[in-house]
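Entry 14. Ran structure prediction on the chain below.
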Amino acid sequence: MDFLEAIKEQEIYLKTPQNASICEPFFFECERIVQIAEQYKNEQASLVEERTAETFIVQYAVGGENLHRGFYNPSPTYDLTIGNCNRGKILSRITSRSKISYEYNFDTNHNLLLIRKSPHSEFETFEALIGKQNEIIGITFDRFNKLRQVTECLYEDGQIFQYINCMFSLSEIAVSNYQKEVYRYSNNQLTSTDYYEFLPDIKLLNHSRTIFTHDTDGYLSTYQVEYFQGEEISKNAKDENVYTINIRRRA
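Output, structure tokens:
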């Protein structure tokens, strides 16, 4: 199937009852995230002030601008499977030449409280983290105090099992892009990641599954990707390639 045929097939599928049924729970999810946004949309000043007051140590990083939260991105694998995404690095010291991309505020227990991206620039954003341990909500504002992003991370036994990242419309409190990763483990090793991207304005849901292997030392070694249409693996977008992971990471 060529590219144009694939586009036509997708256009037909988007109008089907099957697509409407698949998208329905994601509309409910967007509504739930909007309720969180409504709760905090006017709290930028207090959220930043409270977390600044609790700060015990501050770290600075360079790079990682294309990745949510940079070095401390919650996903254990996103930067391993997506091109042009790296976490950057934490600076051991700051000089006049340091081009800081992230500023991280931690409390005395080393819990991440506040993230400033592109600090002291016209593109500066503030992400305040709410909650600890099993559920952490992130609320991001721009320098004009407009809410731009809501994230939600869920943990169990110290391992992340779900990460939601929602971007908001510039004109209203509404989700414009919903992304979710669901992680599966076996014997404390990550076996797969299901990635969902939902665009509510056009009722489009993309779903893929990345399946991982580990080497004998427990490091992530290779991965393969399966693509879905609805609840079925798409035969027209099957990827037979096995990709090598070049970064040593246990997950």
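The CA atoms of residues 5 and 223 lie 28 Å apart. Will compare against last week's run tomorrow.
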